Amino acid sequence: MHKLNYILILVLTCFFIDSTFAIWCYRCNSATPGCSDNFNWRGIGFLGEHCPEDDDICVKVIETKGASEFITRDCLSALVPYRTDIPADKYEGCRHATFDPKLANYVNNSIKEINVKRDYFDSTLYCFCFLDHRCNGSSNLSISTTLLVASLTAIFAFLRL
């Protein structure tokens, strides 16, 4: 009888928990070994990080100046506060950055090394992905589904004993 009570409590707990895992993305740039165009996750030393928001998107930003390339891999929510050239269409795939003609028009910048107009790079390409973990990678299973499968497995294993 005690076994049935534990099983019932476990199954009911599975139905009440209903939050999803946030997507995992690689968060590095070209200055990090292994994060350049020839990506090697062993070189960066970790398997990615949780994005701060549940509905986040992984982004790979490719900025080119002549023959050199600078690559940034991150979550979209981390780039939004300081990037003004993010394309409006953020669905899966790659798009060129938007151009803001009024960006830094009324800025009196006496230090020429500060790129307030963000016009240093010849081209900027944003590649978005959100259909897989570390695709730059979200689990489609919610916690309740995962716990339900785990609890059913435990129940069948427990009943066999």
Gyration radius (Cα, Å) is 23 Å
Structural class: alpha+beta
> What separation lies between the terminal Cα atoms?
15 Å
**In sequence order, what are the helices and strands, one letter per element?**
HEEHEEEHEEH
Instruction: Extract low-pLDDT stretches.
Output: 137-144
Approximate shape = elongated
| Average pLDDT level | 78
Number of strands: 7
* Relative strand content: 15-25%
The helix content is 25-40%
Could you give the order of strands across the largest sheet?
A: 2-5-4-7-6
Question: Tags for this entry?
Answer:
20% strand, 161 residues, 5-stranded antiparallel sheet, alpha+beta
Report on this model:
There is one protein chain. This protein has 4 helices and 7 strands. The chain has 161 residues and is of the alpha+beta class. The strands form 2 sheets. Strands 2-5-4-7-6 form a 5-stranded antiparallel beta sheet. A hairpin with a 2-residue loop joins β4 and β5. The relative contact order is 0.23.
Can you give me a brief rundown of this structure?
By secondary structure, the protein is an alpha+beta fold. The protein has 4 helices and 7 strands; from the N terminus they run αββαβββαββα.
Ordered list of secondary-structure elements with their pairings:
Elements lengths: L1 H15 L7 E2 L2 E2 L11 H4 L4 E2 L7 E8 L2 E8 H4 L13 E4 L26 E7 L13 H18 L1
Antiparallel strand pairs: 1-3, 2-5, 4-5, 4-7, 6-7
Helix pairs in contact: 1-4
